[in-house]
Design a protein that fits this description.
Residues 6-58 form the DUF397 domain. This protein is an alpha+beta fold and 60 residues long. Helix content is 15%, strand content 28%. It has one helix spanning 50-58, and strands at residues 9-10, 22-27, 30-35, 46-48. The mean pLDDT is 80.
């Protein structure tokens, strides 16, 4: 699935001050993560499993 086809939203773990925001999009088997400062399809995207994302957010 291309990055443009995903429904991106700002992560609730991002700060409200701006500058340090993650955008997240989900599919049934993958969590897609990107930097909101570089949202274009050319920017890097990290993809992890839902279990890995749950472990990451739980460790906060």
């Amino acid at each position: 699935m291309s990055a443009e086809a995903l429904q991106w939203f700002k992560s609730s773990y991002s700060g409200s001050e701006g500058g340090q925001c993650l955008e997240v999009a989900t599919t049934p088997h993958t969590i897609h993560i990107r930097d909101s400062k570089n949202p274009a399809d050319t920017g890097p995207t990290l993809r992890v499993t839902p279990a890995a994302w749950a472990a990451f957010t739980a460790s906060r």
